[in-house]
Each structure stands twice: as C-alpha cells, then as structure tokens.
Amino acid sequence: MSHDSTLTGSEQNLTIFKGMIHSARLRRIGLALGASSAMFLSGCASNAPQDTWQPKGENAEKINTLQWMVFPLAGIVGVLVFSLIGYILWRFRDKGQAIPHQSHGNPTIEITLTIIPALILSVVGVFTFRGIFQLAQTNDTQMVINVTGQQWWWEYDYPAQVVNGVEIAQPIITSGQLVIPTGTKVLLRETSRDVIHSYWIPALNGKKDAVPGRINLLRIQANKPGIFAGQCSEFCGLSHANMRMEAVALSPEDFATWIANQQRNAESPAQATLADEGETVFLNQCIRCHQVNGLKKADGTAAIAAPDENVYAGAAPNLTHLMSRNTFAGAAFDLLTDGCRKNVWSAAPEEFGAVYLKGVIADCLNQTNIRRWLRNAPAMKPMYANPVKLEASDGKYRGMPNLGLSESDIDKLVAYLSTLK
Amino acid sequence: MAIIERPTPADTISLRMPVTPAQSMGIVRRPVTSTGWKSWVFTVDHKKIGIMYGVFAMFFFIVGGVEALLIRLQLAAPDGKILSADLYNQMFTMHATTMIFLFAMPMAAAFANYFLPLQLGARDVAFPRLNALGLWLLVAGGLILNSSWFLGGAADGGWFMYSPNSGPVFSPSNGVDFWTIGVQIAGFGSLVSSINLIVTILNMRAPGMTLMKMPVFCWMIMVVQFLLVFSLPVITVALVLLTFQRSFGATFFDVAQGADPLLWQHLFWIFGHPEVYVLILPAFGIISEVLPTFSRKPLFGYPFVVFSGASIGLVGFGVWSHHMFATGLGPISVAAFSIATMAIAIPTGVKIFNWTLTMWGGKIWYSTAMKFAIGLIVLFTIGGLSGVTHAVAPSDTQQTDTYYIVAHFHYVLVGGMVFGLFSGFYYWWPKVFGKMLNEKLGGWNFWLMVIGMNMTFGPMHILGLQGQPRRMYVWTEARAGEGFFNFGFWNRVASLGSFILAIGILIFLINVVHTARKGKPAPLDPWDARTLEWITTSPPKEHNFDRIPVVHHLDEFFHRKYQENTTTGEMVQIATGAQLVQAEEDNADAHIHLPSPSYWPIAIAVGVGTLGLGVVYGVPIMIVGVLIILGSAFGFVLEPSVADDIDYDPPMSGGQDTKELAPLG
Amino acid sequence: MAMWLFLGSECLLFGGLISTYMLYRGRVTQGPRPSQVFDIPFTSVSSFVLLMSSLTMVLAVTSAQRKDNHRTKLWLMVTASLGATFVGGQVYEFTAFYNEGLGFTTNLFSSSFYTLTGFHGVHVTVGVIMLLSLRGIISKDKDTGDRPEVVELIGLYWHFVDIVWIIIFTLVYLIPA
Q: How far apart are CA C39 and CA C62, in angstroms?
C-alpha cells in the first residue's frame, strides 16, 4: 500500500479511535468507527483503476473537492455522536441507582439540536448547489463525441469537426476505448440503442445514464496522457458485469496521429497469405454484422455489414482498426498479453502516447483470448445468442453467437484481424 | 364491520334474531373452531394474524438470507463460478424483493398487528376480516413471486425493474410476469391492511388516550400506513403498465414507439422512496419503546420524535428523484432534490439525538433488546452519515450504483431495520409466547450480528469508493487494484462477514427452539415496562383486556406502578405489574364480543392469486379467478360480523353464555 | 373513514394513469391521432348521463337516511342503470375506435387511453355491481349492519368515480393535445 499526504489525517483519526476502545462496552462503537475510518482511508489507495478519489480531470476534481468537504464532515459528526453515546452508555449504566426522574425532555436542547444540523447542512447545500451547476456547464466545450450504449458494449462516434486545429474530415466510428486529447473539454452525447446503460470513468467525471430515446450530456477532460478504467454502472441485463470501458487520453500531437490512422480505410492483405484466406472467412461470416471500412467483396464491390438484420440493437463494433485498440468485446477482454497490457497501463504520461499508438503488435497479441472468443463467444461472455431462444427479439441476436468456426478458419481469421491496425 | 366493543344488553339481543345457515350463503357454516389449523387459517384475531405474519416473514428472511449468502459466495473471489450470470441476476433481484416485500414489510406488519391494538387498549383492529385478507393476499403474492424459481426462472431485472430492461424483449422468461403480479398482489394486501390500521389508530384508542399520549410505536406505524396508502397506488400504476406491456402487447416502455423509459423510474421511485421509510420507521417505533423501558425514563422529547417521524414521512414523498441523479434530469431538478434530501437528514438527526438523550440520566439495563436498540442507533447513524455524502449530488454521481450505496442502505436496513426488529423480538417475546428468550444466547446473537454485519457491509464502503459497481455477477482482477485497498481482500472479508452474520441469526433461531422447549415462563412484567400491552396476561387473552383501560398518561402502565414522591422527587413503586393485571381481572367487563372467524378472506386471496396466474397463463384462468373473487366478495359482504348460533358445531343454544369469549377472571 | 382513505389512495392511482396519458397522448407513430377518433358530442352525452347518476345517488342517500326503503331502492336502480348506460356507451365508443383502426396496441396514445378510460370503466362497473347488490340486500331486508351508512359509503365511492370522469373528460377529450 502506498501512502500519500492524506493518510496522516486518517491516522490521527485511528489513534483517536484506538484511544476510545479502552472498555469492552465501547467495543461495538470502536467497530462502527473502524468502518467509518476505513471509509476515509479508502481515499488513499493508489492502484485501483476505478478509484473515485483520484481525479485526473477538471470535473472529477470538482466532485472530489465536494467529497473532501462532506466525508470528513460526516466523519466528525460521527465521532462526536459516538463519543456522546459511549459516554452515556458508561456513565448511566445500572449501578443500582434509583429510578430516575421522569423527565420528558428539554425544548431548548431539542431546538438547538435541530438547528445545528440544519445549519451544517445548509452550508453543504450551498456548495452542492454551486457544484451541480458548475458540472452542468457545457457552453465552453471544445470537442463532441457521440457515445451509444447497447448490450453489452459502447460505440464511440466522432462527428466531423475540428479539434485543436486538427480536422476530423470523415466521422470516426470505434468502440472499446474512448480516445480523447488531453487538456480538451470533451462533451459526450450519450444515448442507447436498447436498455439504459450508464457511462462512468471515475477519474474523469461522475456517471451519466445513457437512456434510449434521450441524449444526455457528460463533459470530461483529462489533464495528462494515460488510460482510465470505467464500467457500465446501470444494470443492463445478462452481461452487465462485462460491459466495461476505457478512456485513453493522448497529447494533442499523438491525438492527431491517432485521428489520421483512424481515417484510413483497411487495406486487403497480400494475396495467398493466411490473412488473405482470413479475409474470405470474414466475408463469409463476420461481415453480416461487423463493418470493416474499405473491405471489398470478391466481385470488387464494397462489403457492407448489416447488423440491423441480425442484432437487436442494430449495431456491432466496427473492426476497421481493431488492433489500434487494446481490448475487444465491450472492453471485457484484452487483446494484449498481460505483460504488454501492464506496459501500457503503467507507462509514464510522457511515454504513454508512443506506447499506446503502437497498437497491438504481433508479439503482444493475446492469442488465447481472441481464439477462445472466435471459438465460442457466448461461452466467454454470457449473451442472448442461442438461435432457438430468440423468439422475444424477433430472431435477432443480443450479442455474438457461436459461429461454429473450424480451427483452421480461426487461424485464418486471427491472421486477418491482426492486419486491421 | 367493526367489532362491537362492550355492547349494551340491547345490542346483544338484537344480534340474536332467529337465523338459518342461509345467512352464510347457505353453503358453508361459519368456522368457529378455536383450536387446530382451522383456528389459524380462518382466524380474524389480530394476535394470530400477527404471529402468522411473523412466521411468514421469518421464513422469507431465511430464504432471502440464503440468496444473500450465495451472492457473497459468488463474489468472494474474482470471476466467481458458483452462479451463472443469469442465475446471479435472478438471485440479487429476488434477494431484494424477498427482503423488502416478504420479510421487512410483513415483519413490521406482524409487530403492528400484534401490538397496535394492545398498545391502544383495544380488543382487535377496526376491520378484523380485512386484516386477515391483507395477510392472505400477502401470502398469495409471496407464493407467486417465489413459484417463478420453479416455473422457468425468477425475475432478473433487479427489484427496481427498470424499463426497458424489464420488457418482453430483454427479459423473455416469465420471471418478470410473476414478479409484477406477485408484488401487485402483496401490494393490495398492504393497502388493505394499512387502511385498516389507520382506522384502528384513529378510532379505537382507549378512553383518555389522546394522540399525544399514544405510544411512539403506534405513531410510527400510523405514519408508515399513510405512506403506504399514498405510495402503493403509484407502484400499482407502474406495475399495471408493465403487465399490460408484457402480457397484452402494449407499448408503454417501448422506445421505438416514442415511449420514455424514465416514466417507469419516476413512478417506481415515487413509491420506492417512501417505501424506504416504510421499512425503517417501524423499527424506529420499536426502539422508541425499548429505549425508555430499559433506561427507566420516558422518551426524551416525545413531541419532537413524533413530528420528526411525521415530517420524515412527508418529506419522504419529495425526494424520489435522488435515486435518479445520473439519469440526466437537468441541474435544476438535481439541485432541488439534492437539497430536499439533505433536509430529510434533519428530522432523522433529531431522532438520533432524542434516543441518545433518552438514555442520559437513565438507569440503563443492558438486556439483549436494549443492546439491539443501541446497535440500531450506532449503525443507523453510520448509514445516515454515508447517506448525507450522497445527498451531495455531484458526489453521488461517483457513488451511485457502486458498493458504497450497497453499504449505505445495508447499514440503514440491516443495522437499522433488522436490529430494530430483533430488539422487538427480545422485548416482546415473553408477551407473545409467555416465555423468556434466553439472554445468554441473546448476547451471542447480538455480538455475532454486530461483528458479521460490520464485516460484511463495512468493507463495501471501501469497495464502492474503489469503484466496484453493484449488480455485477463477477468482478475482475484487472480492475481490482493492488495494495491494501484491492477488491480481493475486502470482498473476502465481506463474504466471511456474511457468514458470521448468518451464524448470528442462526443463534436466534436456536434460541427460539430452545425457548419453546425449555424456556422459563415469563413473569407478567419482566422488563418493568411502560405501555398498555403489559397490563394483561402473557400471552394475552383472546379479547386482550378484561377491562378496557382508561388512560391518563403517556406510559400509562409505568405511572400506575410508580408515583413521584412530591417532597423528594423520587419515583416510588406503588404496585407491581402482576398486581395491576390481577386488578384488571378482578374488575373484568361483563360482556365481551369478538368477531367470529371467516372463510372469505382466504377465499378472496385464492381468487386474486388465481386471477394473477391467469395474467401469465391465459384468460380462462383469469375468468375462474374473477368468479372466485366475486363469489367470496359477496360472502364477505353478506356475512354478519358474529357467527350465528347455528353455525357452531354443535349448534349453540342461543343463551347468554354462548358467544361470550370472556371467562371473566 | 376507511372509504376516504381508500379514495385518497385511488386519487393517486388515477393521478398516475392520467399523468401517463398526458405524457403519451401526443406520441403517435402510427394509426389515428386523438383528434381523429374522438366523437365529442357522443361522449358529452354519456358524461352527462354519468353526471346525472350522481344526482340520483344523492337522492338515494337522502331516502336511505329517511329510512324510506322503497325510494332508496328506486333511486339505487336509477343510478345503477345510468351507470350501466355509461359503461354501455364506453363499450360502444371503444368498438367504434377499434373499427377506425385504433387498437389497444396501435400506439402509445391508444394504450394509455384505453388503460385510463378502461380502468375508469371497471370502477363504474364495480360501482354498478355494488349498487345492484345493495338493492338486493335491502329488498331481502336482512340484518347487515347500518344500512344508511352503507348507502352513504357507496354513494361516496360513486361520486368519486364521477369526479374522476369529469377530470378525465376534460383532460382527455376537451383539451387538445
């Protein structure tokens, strides 16, 4: 466990608590306080990727300031109340004293004890009020990304726009990792194609639900390059637990490189290679749902995916630049081997862009994960993909079915997918 | 059909007109047995109904507890394999539904049914047969809810059942159908019983008991019933819309047709938030009786406690959207609901202070009941303080739908509600069953529950702040972090804690069995108590009081036992509880009439249940259900409140001694 | 008092249903819109019928308080038949709408319209059954408790159902979406 400066305060609290647990009668209270002190201490962990106490961007910092106000306040009130209770329990235990006077109360004390919490809360209320309106501000937005949830992955759609002087000429459609430039106020326009999901990258901002039929706004900003974890946080059905997301912040220069790469179409692999055979398999199977921009059918016409005919949500991840991202299947599984993943996640901010933009190089490809997925996707991530049980959704899948591919087909496909940089 | 209290001789005669069995619809005789299973199934006695509520709730407490243990087993390690995703989703849905609708509410109803008339000095509730109807509707709802486990899978949309995820496309099994029907029927039961209890409180208090001399438990129960009366119809609308969508093809939550999924959330939480107070206020009421008794002092600031309870109820209707801070309500609504939510902390704080100060200057007897009551104050305060942290809406957007929230409401509901109910068990067990629960086992029960509860839910604060969302059937090593605050360690602690908590509850069950077999008979006034339920035998007679008490004080029973010495100001005992009970028996009322048992409440409940199954399985079954309801409703309405002589087996002679249930001394 | 509480509860039930309707009435993706199907003169007449039944119910309650069994029975019958006429009108209206292509599942407007008015219709039907049963009980003249009170309670329910209809009629039919 690594310490930072905030621990000192909590340690002091702990000492107070230890001092209090001097009598067996107070043991319960000690326990209770232990729990609340743990609450404070939890602000100091360093390595949990979804820690809500380590803001890495403007709005998350604003929230964190409010947290630092209300949590200690709650703690102090708790300590005072529990000390009082502890004292009473010890002082007024039955020592054989007479039946006490039947006092029915004291209005002065009661009114005071009503007003004090009211005052404390109105102070908290004022700051909360300010915070809410600050966080809702969107008029100085510098970039817009459409974020669409569906069971059980997120699609990111970058409309044509100019960001920090770099033009996104063609809209970019990607998934798995949300890539943003640092120091830029990015507005996420969230919606959903089926049920309610919730977009949440704790380091960048609080969560906001993606509600079908509505567009909700969430503004994020990352201070430094890095990768930030998130998780769908509105229960969205069977594989809710496997609906994850990662946000990647790149310096504006690296971001421009990323944009340029994303604007490219995929190129066909060289003739008579394994990857070329893989392209054929892709055209027979995967193209039904997954688009690869620039892919052509045998007759030379453009291959267009038709997820709306096969998937209930009407969308499937665009795979044109699959290997530029590190995860697949709703960010649930890594495309990188464990070692390579660690390199990305632990890269220092200065180096991060270079490491990330390498994408999934051959040595780093997590063969186990991708092969397991191609062999039988629903076994790896629970989905509604059993063809005989799709009556309710008009025969359309919710998720990816088991394609029944042969091992040699899988070899070919992996070779082909590896070319989609 | 209110029962007739202390009838004049003229009343008695008018009821004794010549009768034939035709009055009970000519088909069946009125049930009159006072022993055996029939005396329970057809009873209208509030005490028997209360006990049945209790047994029912305890059974489902165990069911819900086993579900919770399975959930904790699954989450003890990363990528748990004990439950599939589908089964896990059913499990947490049914855990919440069972604990809320089939344990917490019925257990509160058990206490309310049993003790409300006793504390008010009444012989029964205002509408005894409606009381029975409420119970049997709840049983029907509970059975339908849980039968889904065996009929193709339980509901899997979470107890909040958000649309559109609960729609026919996204939840294709019948589970959600059973859920809507079951909750709906249980809700009807609650509605019936809450109307009944409000009327009882307002109309049937003993002479002299003004509302401000009424025990706080009755006050809290009354607030709860008002909350139910005005919140249940809202969930009814939501459930009806969902049922129509799932069973009859309507499109209320079909976004493609232009529907708004947030409609469900608003309807649900307009019910759902008052429901939170429905769960906690009865426990507040219980410890507001226990704390004064074991501190030997009246409740500190009685009017403040009463009005804070009422204002919690009132404000509770105005904060529903704080469950929806992340749904994109817009900053103005968020700010308004955020402030309202903070406001509700004030009356809650008032209660905590008043309980604490009740003990100040007291003479505290650490019985098990008292320990649980103190446990409630401490644990609920922790839950309340963590509640304030997410009344701050921006902070809530980091915490909502994480384990931090799970920790918060389990501190409130387990630490608050369950501890309150257990306090009630230990306090009132001798009253209900005439035997003392073992205090030594009670100590184990309490301490294991305290340790288990803090070990289970304490770490969840950490897990939540570390970003572990709720309702995930697995958590992954990749997001677990390292060091002291990693998910792995704290999830294991929580799972271990849940089993300690379970052992604590098991000890309670052992205590119950032990007491039933070997428990020592309870004295008439084991706790030197303060309220009217102790001024009769334990267990109370069928007619509760030999003489309807006349009330002069808050804590009437205490003031009959003790008087203040005007010169020294000391409290001097002038009578024992046993002497007071004896005095009542010696001066018993001459004519006591009680309502007779009835077949119709349970018959209506069977009909409603059949109708409900019909919604899932087809119109013919619905028609059968409607016919049963109509038939038994007629039976219900046409039946006089007291059985006719001829319905007794053997038929009674019609003399003065027949229907008198009071053996008089 | 129990009846008052029950009606308080019912207020929120109809409140919820009316809110749903108000939210959804303009959301028509297919099929007829409200203004295309409503036959306001016809519904006004049936609303008037229901309104009159409240008057006759008052007369029934007054007769019951005067212990005038004969008149009570008469007015109860009149009230019940006016109620039945209203329900008949509603059935006719529903059939007409259905023939114009507005099924229960056609669109959000139709679903919420039929649910709201259907719920009200069921309440009126239950009221009619209660009125008829009450009349039956009175003519059998069995001892079933305080009869004027029972008539009054059912009257209370009847007035409530009536008032709810006035609100529904105004909001659903008269105020254009």
A: 36
Note whether residue C31 is domain-resident.
Answer: no
Per residue in A256-270, pLDDT (tens digit) is: 999 999 999 999 999
Residues A168, A31 share a domain? no
User: Predicted confidence band at B25 (pLDDT cuts at 50, 70, 90)?
Assistant: very low
B89 interface with A at CB cutoff 8 Å: yes
Q: Which tokens go with A225?
A: 């390059």
pLDDT single digits (tens) B296-306: 999 999 999 99
Q: Are strands A143-150 and A186-192 parallel, antiparallel or unpaired?
A: parallel
Out of B14, B23, B237, name the one closest to residue C13 (CB).
Answer: B237
- Render the burial of B33-60: b for 16+ CB within 10 Å, e for the rest: eeeeeeebbbbbbbbbbbbbbbebbbeb
Cα–Cα distance measured from residue B371 to residue B504, given in angstroms and rounded to the nearest whole number: 14
Task: Name the neighbours of A, counting chains with at least 3 Cβ pairs within 8 A.
Answer: B
CATH code of the domain in which C63 resides: 1.20.120.80
User: Crossing angle of helices A27-41/A7-20, nearest 10°?
Assistant: 180
Query: Which of C1, C20, C145 is the closest to B241 by Cβ?
Result: C20
C-beta atoms of B301 and A31 within 8 A = no
Residues of B in contact with A89 (CB under 8 A): 359, 364, 374
Q: What is the pLDDT of residue A7?
A: 37
Q: How many Å apart are CA B418 and CA B103, to the nearest integer?
A: 10
Q: Chains A, B: CB contacts under 8 A, how many?
A: 368
Which residue of A54, A102, A228 to mutate against B (max B Cβ within 10 Å)? A102
φ, ψ of residue B220 to 5 degrees: the values are -65, -40
Is B576 in the A-facing interface, judged by CB distances under 8 Å? no
Min Cα separation C5/chain B (Å): 6
- Please tell me the pTM assigned to this model: 0.90
The per-residue pLDDT for A37 is 53
Domain that holds residue C159: 2-24+40-174
Q: Is C146 on the interface with B (CB under 8 A)?
A: no
DSSP A362: G
Number of domains in chain C: 1
β-pair partners for A153: A150
Do B236 and C29 make contact, defined as CB atoms within 8 angstroms? no
Q: Is A157 helix (H, G, I), strand (E, B) or coil?
A: strand
A376: CB partners within 8 A, 6+ apart: A402
**Count of the separate structural domains present in chain A:** 2
Given this model, what pLDDT does residue B28 score? 55
C139-150 core/surface letters (b: 16 or more CB in 10 A; e: else): eeeeebeebeeb
Residue A248: enclosing H or E segment and its boundaries?
Answer: strand A244-250
A233 touches chain B (CB under 8 A): yes
- DSSP at A44: G
Residue-number span of the structural domain to which A55 is assigned:
7-135
Chain B interface, best mutation among C106, C115, C139, by max B CB count within 10 A: C115
Residues A127 and A146 in one domain: no
Q: pLDDT of A60-93, one tens digit each?
A: 999 999 999 999 999 999 999 999 999 999 999 9
Query: Helices in A206-336 by DSSP H: which ranges?
Result: 252-263, 274-284, 307-310
